[in-house]
Specification:
The complex is a heterodimer of chains A (151) and B (791). Chain A is mainly β and 151 residues long. In chain A, 10% of the residues lie in helices and 48% in strands. Chain A has one domain: OB fold (Dihydrolipoamide Acetyltransferase, E2P), CATH 2.40.50. The termini of chain A are far apart. In chain B, helix 3 runs parallel beside helix 5, helix 11 packs parallel to helix 12 and helix 12 packs antiparallel against helix 17. About 7% of the residues of chain B have low confidence. Classes of the chains: A mainly beta (151), B alpha/beta (791).
Chain lengths: 151, 791
């Protein structure tokens, strides 16, 4: 299988999203926070006449303190389950071609990553973890979920 | 039957339209077999359909045409221009008949000539001059009025409508964005003009599109009084139905979906809920039971509340029944709250009726009601108090969601609140609100009633302001259940139409938001789910049926008829009071909304221009003006005040003040005299009577002068300017120029109603009753007199 993937950095790790899942890459404008929403929901933002839910991928993977990582001003727009989301990541890198099927490695990628990833793929610029979007967007495992008062 | 008929008409029209082209082609080439076939199919179908309805004329006509065409097809006859014309005449005639059927008129006219014309073609040689036929065709063509009466309809797939609708929604957003950018770049007359036009067109289009799918819930409500009447008669009960919120609009399909559930609940309420008159009397209630239906829109959902003041649900009986039918175990029943037990009535296989009556025992239970509602994403809940009543709340989603909303701000973030909930906006400090903290619950006093108050900041977990200092802005929200509560926000921004978009499931789970919308500046806001927020905070009453409160109010009104007054400080610093019944609400407007250019100051509020009193001679010093909005029931006026203090009880007798007609009397308040303003004098001086719903008609001369100069004057005098055709109304006043009047009077064609004659010259010939056309006062007087004479 050789397919186009969008390469991105999440919490310092290289990840990939299937290009066909990504509708566009936008510059994140104003994000309106959503009080009382789970922390991984950074807020909502507008894309033309649409509202996007902004997901902070670092927090959605159960990692603490997204502020440890740089955040790209751009975000990948994806649609699942009839809703559109903007995925906030460290950096959006490039489009690459995946070489071969996603594979697994012994011992897995760690519980949170395992949940949100289809497997590892090889690309022209090195290996990357291919993300599975619906579980990623569903947020971290129940126990790790934290409510926060939006700042 | 009506639906069937409408279907028949629609189908016939569609075929007529499709056949139109074929007819023309067939006329050009009568030998064309394919065309002939399609024309034949048309008359054949019409004939077949007529069988379902009692339209003998239509049937015989289409039958005759079918016979003739069948002969043609079978080759028994040769097509001739005469025959073609005769068939065409018949098809035209069918089109007109369909129009009259739709308009509900009897089918008039004799068709024997048309039918005979078919035969005439047969006996005549094939190249005979089509004389007999032209005679037939000489039948009057449909008049324009007839064509108009038949409203043209087409049928469209719903998906197409949906697509158009979402396109228009996006257009509205694009326009808002553009508006914002235009505002930022300053005034540009060359762009602003077309942009205004675009805005107007867009709002028209949106209205039309919205109406395509939406229907007022009235259409559903309108059948209910009859249903209630019949049912209560059948059951020997007396029930009054009270309908509210009929103007709430709902998707047509949704209306159909809730029709049965609603009917079912009403049947239940009358059959099981409301007691027989004797039982009601014994329970100390009015003999007539009250059934209240109210519809309310909130964001993406519509809540319909059905409440009755009957005996309420019997918790024990429901529990026992549920245990007997094996829905729950005894232990489970004992552990369940009353509310939980009540909801069991929606479980499959549950019915409490001891004996199945022919009204509600139809084998369809409330479980089916719930199922039907859940199928469309709705829900149903019940609450009830024994002896007081039962309240069903149906929640249904709105597929289309452009709603009027208000934007509020708290802790620097903006949120939208559906306008429908907003009862009033108040702005006051802690003392003015009589803010009190009772345990965890905050209360404010609004019009003498203690109202629970929520701080939006608290609800959202944002830093909350200190309620004890400073002034606060509160929105009083009225829920569909009738409950009132105050929501404290920091600021209220503009209101406008919001296109509500659904939220991602994770955001919905917060339970605070109903959707999201984009503001004019493109910033997204969250739409608050007012009902859920209220429910979360326990503000949704338990079956506190509004009928109960109505009765309480009545009782209160009867027991103590003490008059109350609103105490305030006038602009000039003096304290004064005005009877509370006159005060509709307290408003705050920017000084820019006040117009001082006329003798009578006016102010714009809610898009209305109302007279403004109480300003005195003082110039408008403040940027904002606090106003009392007064109403005498018919007209409204605004009274400017410095500060609103409190509502106080009026003493039984006021100390009269002989010299001042504007003051009703003096009362003592805190040891100091306070003037009570006379509502009578205020309204006499400033009140503008509401325009009568039906204004007398006035027919003007058909000249540019009349249209441009006279018409505004006439309208000001309370008339409705009408055109020549519609001036047939008896008693319509006509204004005629003197010369025309003379001509008309010579011809004996004077209008029936009163006539006001105008002349061109200021100096009247002696003895002429005419008025100089620029004599404003004289004309006004004459118009007034004519209106008076009519009344």
């Amino acid at each position: 299988m050789s397919a186009l993937v969008l390469m991105a950095q999440i919490a310092g790790r290289r990840c990939a999203m299937a290009a066909e899942d990504v509708r566009s890459v936008i510059d994140l404008g104003v994000i309106a926070p959503v009080p009382r929403a789970p922390a991984f929901i950074a807020g909502i933002t507008a894309l033309r006449s649409q509202t996007l839910t902004v997901i902070d991928c670092r927090l959605a993977l159960g990692l603490e303190a997204a502020s440890l990582y740089p955040t790209d001003t751009r975000a990948a727009v994806v649609a699942t389950g009839g809703h559109s989301y903007a995925l906030m990541v460290d950096a959006i890198e490039d489009i690459a071609t995946s070489l071969g099927e996603p594979g697994h490695i012994p011992g897995g990628f760690g519980a949170e990553w395992q949940r949100a990833a289809t497997g590892m793929i090889e690309t022209g610029i090195g290996p990357a973890l291919l993300l599975d979007l619906p579980p990623l967007i569903a947020g971290p495992l129940a126990g790790a979920r934290t409510n926060r008062a939006a700042a | 039957m009506d639906d069937l008929l409408a279907e028949f008409i629609a189908e016939t029209r569609e075929m007529l339209e499709a056949t139109g082209g074929e007819l023309v082609a067939w006329e050009a080439d009568p030998a064309d077999r394919a065309r002939l076939d399609s024309v034949f199919r048309f008359v054949h179908t019409v004939k077949g359909n007529c069988g379902f309805f009692d339209f003998p004329q239509l049937a015989s006509l289409s039958h005759a045409a079918e016979d003739a065409l069948a002969d043609l097809r079978a080759g028994r006859r040769a097509p001739s221009p005469a025959l073609v014309s005769a068939v065409l005449a018949i098809i035209d005639r069918i089109a007109r008949m369909v129009d009259s059927i739709e308009a509900g008129e009897p089918i008039a006219g004799d068709d024997s000539a048309l039918i005979a014309a078919l035969g005439a073609g047969e006996t005549a040689p094939s190249h005979d001059a089509p004389e007999p036929v032209t005679a037939v065709l000489g039948e009057p063509p449909p008049t324009p009025a007839q064509t108009l009466a038949a409203m043209r309809t087409i049928r469209l797939p719903v998906e197409l409508l949906d697509r158009v609708m979402s396109g228009v929604s996006d257009m509205v957003l694009a326009r808002n964005d553009l508006a914002h950018r235009l505002r930022e770049s300053g005034t540009q007359p060359t762009i602003d003009g077309p942009f205004e036009r675009l805005t107007a067109i867009l709002s028209d289009v949106r209205d039309a599109i919205t109406r395509m799918r939406m229907q007022r819930i009235e259409t559903l409500f309108s059948a209910l009084p009859r249903l209630v009447r019949d049912l209560s008669a059948e059951l020997g009960k007396q029930v009054l139905i009270d309908l509210e919120g009929g103007n709430v609009e709902l998707d047509r399909e949704m209306i159909e979906t809730i029709r049965d559930p609603l009917t079912h609940i009403i049947r239940n309420a009358i059959d099981h809920g409301i007691e027989a008159p004797a039982a009601r009397r014994a329970a100390g209630k009015r003999e007539i039971g009250m059934l209240t239906l109210s519809a309310h829109q909130s964001g993406n959902t519509i809540a319909i509340v059905v409440s009755d003041d009957g005996r309420g649900l019997d918790e024990a009986k429901i529990a026992a029944k549920a245990i007997a039918t094996g829905l729950i175990t005894e232990a489970e029943g004992a552990a369940m709250s009353r509310d939980k037990i009540l909801q069991l009535i929606f479980e499959p296989g549950f019915s409490t009726a001891d004996s199945i009556s022919n009204v509600s025992g139809r084998g369809v239970g409330l479980d089916v009601v719930r199922q039907n509602l859940e199928k469309v994403g709705g829900s149903i809940a019940v609450s009830s108090q024994p002896g007081v009543g039962t309240l069903f709340t149906l929640t249904i989603p709105l597929t289309l969601s452009i709603i009027a909303g208000l934007t509020v701000e708290v802790a620097g973030q903006r949120f939208a609140v559906p306008q429908g909930y907003i009862e009033e906006i108040i702005e006051a400090d802690a003392a003015g609100l009589d803010y009190a903290q009772m345990g965890e619950r905050a209360l404010i006093t609004f019009r003498g009633e203690r109202v629970p108050c929520l701080l939006l900041a608290d609800v959202l977990g944002l830093p909350a302001p200190d309620m004890h200092t400073g002034t606060h802005t509160l929105a009083l929200l009225r829920l569909a259940s009738g409950d009132l509560f105050a929501l404290c926000v920091e600021r209220i921004h503009s209101h406008g139409d919001l296109v509500v978009k659904p939220l991602a499931p994770a955001v919905m789970k917060c339970g605070l938001y109903a959707g999201s919308a984009l503001l004019d500046d493109g910033q997204p806001v969250l739409l608050l789910d007012v009902t859920r927020i209220a429910a979360e905070h326990g503000l949704l009453s338990e079956a506190r049926s509004r009928t109960m409160r109505g009765a309480e109010k009545e009782a209160r009104a009867q027991a103590t008829h003490t008059a109350r007054a609103m105490l305030f400080t006038a602009i000039d610093g003096r304290r004064a009071a005005i009877r509370l019944e006159l005060v509709q609400r307290i408003e705050t407007i920017p000084a820019s909304a006040v117009d001082l250019s006329l003798a009578q100051p006016r102010a714009v509020i809610d898009g209305l221009i109302l007279p403004l009193a109480g300003l005195g001679d003082a110039p408008l010093a403040r940027p904002k003006l606090r106003l009392l909005r007064l109403s005498d029931g018919a007209s409204e006026l605004l009274y400017a005040v410095g500060d609103v203090e409190d509502a106080v009880e009026l003493p039984a007798e006021l100390t009269p003040v002989p010299g001042d007609p504007l003051v009703e009397g003096l009362m003592l308040q805190g040891g100091r005299p306070v003037a009570v303003l006379s509502g009578h004098a205020l309204f006499a001086a400033h009140g503008r009577p509401a325009e009568p719903a039906e204004r007398p008609a006035c027919l003007l001369p058909d000249t540019d002068w009349a249209r441009a100069i006279l018409a505004p004057l006439v309208e000001e005098a309370g008339y409705q300017v009408v055109s020549e055709d519609s001036a047939k109304a008896p008693g319509a006043v006509s204004i005629m120029m003197e010369d025309l009047y003379e001509v008309a009077s010579h011809l004996g064609q004077l209008p029936a109603g009163p006539v006001i004659r105008l002349r061109d010259h200021p100096d009247a010939p002696t003895g002429s009753p005419s008025i100089y056309r620029y004599d404003r006062e004289g004309l006004a007087k004459a118009l007034k007199a004519a209106a008076g004479g009519r009344a």
